[in-house]
Amino acid sequence: MSVKIIDKLGLITLSEHKIVMVRSHNKSLFYIPGGKREQGESDEQALCREISEELKLDLIVGSIRFYGEFIGPADGKSDGTLVRIRCYFADYTGEPQPAAEIAELDWFSIHDLPRCSSTAVTILTRLKKEGLIK
Prior knowledge:
Number of strands: 9
Order of helices and strands: EEEEHEEEEEH
Number of helices: 2
Helix content: 10-25%
Radius of gyration: 14 Å
Largest sheet: 4 strands, mixed
Strand content: 35-45%
Shape: globular
């Protein structure tokens, strides 16, 4: 049996040792903002498009830098589907605000793990270990 993997990109947005997390309409858990590539898009192109759509931020393309790749169970999928998220840091213009399918945006610390998807928990745990969030 082959495992289905959802391939996504995500933006790590930090301020005052907290990270922006988002929740979609009809979902209960929060996750790293971002989304899937469209045909022919590079990681950078897809990340810029998704973050503009979801958070109304304009990423500064030259500042985009890879952080890490994380794999875990896909939220809301009971068939063993996994999500692989390639995470990036980037500078941007604007202030994060929920748009499109995003119902809610919040700044999380390590104490907010119970509100996160399992893959987000892995990412936040690494950020805490590296002293990037508290």
